[in-house]
Amino acid sequence: MPYANVNDVNLYYECHGKGAPLMLIAGLASDSQSWGPVIDELSQHYLVIVLDNRGVGRTTPQDGGTSIQHMANDCMALLDYLELPDASLLGHSMGGFVALDCTIRYPARVSKLILAGTSALNSDRNNSLFQDWVADLKTGMDAATWFRNIFYSIFSDRFFENKETVTEAIRFAVEYPYPQGVTAFEQQVDAIAAFNCLDQLPNITQETMVICGKQDLLFPSEESSNVFQVIPHVSIKVLDDAAHSIHMEVPGAFLAHVVNFLSAEDVPPRQDVG
């Protein structure tokens, strides 16, 4: 198994395919395997790099302390380890925070930027919700119930219409062989709450694409569109049939937008909703 010993963590990563490098950065409580629905297709076009953020998956130690800046530093250190001068970044949710921090602090290392289901800061509502999830873990809530409660916030109504799909998703989450500990989850929640790069968005010079789910309860599409429209070279895509977990619910539409954006040579339009 590939590991990179960087920044006092043993960072788990995988590389798939070949071509221009594209790093995928996962969200809260998610790791490299959360990109499963899109890795195969993306690896037909790019060198796809996925990693387990500190505090999750096979990266150790899980409870060594973290912040968005720590995770961004790990991503850049992984590029160094792989001897890559730069890469395009695709970050989902908390991974979008990490991708933004990489772009702001290491602009020469980021080719293009894709932000999915995210914002430049977390809302008070989300911070309270995530702290409730922490409290539920600490009180010993049944794992299946805990994951089901999270699914209510990240999947669309359509997802719950197929009971077999819901049951299988919960089973997979409960039986996942690399579970995240309570302390590590809380540290990621605290890292999210502490991040805010709103004032620095106008300084981002990279071509940027924002992908929103019309049914996203955590980062509503209208709010994300308003936040990110200040980035000089930004295009915004709103997918009607998706909630927060965009690449899991509508991988085909998600992939089409990503591949078209990364393959385009021209600066994208300022906004393209649809």
From TrEMBL:
Hydrolase as UniProt keyword: yes
Keywords associated with the record: Hydrolase
Any one GO MF annotation of this record: hydrolase activity
Record-linked InterPro entries: AB_hydrolase (IPR050471), AB_hydrolase_1 (IPR000073), AB_hydrolase_fold (IPR029058)
AB hydrolase-1 domain mapped to chain residues: 21-249
Protein name: Alpha/beta hydrolase
Organism, scientific name: Marinobacter nanhaiticus D15-8W
Phylogenetic lineage: Bacteria, Pseudomonadati, Pseudomonadota, Gammaproteobacteria, Pseudomonadales
